[in-house]
Amino acid sequence: MADNNKQQLTIWGRANSVNVQKVLWCLAELDLAYERIDAGMQFGKNDEPAYLAMNPNGRVPTLIDGDYVLWESNSVMRYLCMAYGQGSERGSSIYPSQPKARAGVDRWLDWTLSTLQPLDRPVFWALVRTPIEKRDMVAIQKDVDAEAAVWQIVEAQLATRRFIEGDQFTIADIALGAFARRWFGVEGVTKPKLPNLERWFSQLAVRPGFTQFIAPPMT
After folding, report:
1. Is 100 exposed, middle or buried (0-12, 13-18, 19+ CB in 10 A)?
2. Per-residue confidence at 86, pLDDT binned at 50, 70, 90?
């Protein structure tokens, strides 16, 4: 990683968190150096007073940039692009400055949190973090069907676009791509064919940040 940021960036959060993964992928796209500190689940720390003083939610990730502290993964991605990507072709392309283009990216960042993540979470936890003998496959399939309905929205959006907001890869693709990895990665359930989503996902899968942070086995 190139040491081209003015101060050392620190990311608190475990590498198998989808929200941490989004930030790490964004850092890779911007070619920014950082330190990552494991926190959350088996690593603990996120329920300790020192961490809660930084992030009262007790969740990951948390970004430290000098004396500045920021939580919420999508806000962290926006900040990194604005603070370190402006003036570079790389930074401006993944989070455009033109109001309509930026608003289009922002809506997908919001939609991912408000609509997609609540439906993805029960499917992921049931099929990745729940022992096989404790899985209720009938209930899980219902949850998969509910998640499939919102992926159909993305499928339709991608019918006439290379990426989610046009010809340029943006942080909206990072946010959605991290969850698409989970959608395509879970097995043992019935999922609809989504050819536009598969085509788009194949483009994301060759990006170095995806390969390093999103592609590893899900845990």
Report:
1. exposed
2. confident
